[in-house]
Amino acid sequence: MDTTSYDDIIDRPRPLSKKHPPMPMEKRAAQFLPFSALTGLDALMEEEARLTEDRPELGEDALLALDERFALLRARLSEHPEVTVTFFRSDEKKGGGRYETQTGRVRRLDEVNRTLILTDGTGIYLDTIVELLI
Known about the structure:
By secondary structure, this protein is α+β, with helices and mostly antiparallel strands. It has helices at about 25-30, 40-50, 60-75, and strands at about 80-90, 95-110, 115-120, 125, 130-134. It has a domain at about 60-134: SH3 type barrels (Roll). Helices cover about 25% and strands about 25% of the residues. A five-stranded antiparallel β-sheet has the order 4-3-2-1-5. The longest helix has 16 residues, at about 60-75.
């Protein structure tokens, strides 16, 4: 590159405006941040890639075993037994959901609202329970 045409100004200080003070470095850097024309695309792709499971359909044998566990729970309800419950939580954003397991003491079994309520305040809908260990 030929620098001979700039030899007269190459060693001179940078000119400063008397009207406009120099911009702080933080603001200068913000001018050169990458521009994203597709705002939210990364979040959308991450959400789409997130896996969910299908809601289980329990067979007749599994339903009978679950009914027996609930009968045992009803008989011991006054003792507030400790239970481990595996249930299916539906996903709020897309179809399907995931299995969750919660352990705690039973406060009550609300037959009207079909909810198992634990002492920590957690409510689990009976229709979502796939396994109950007492």
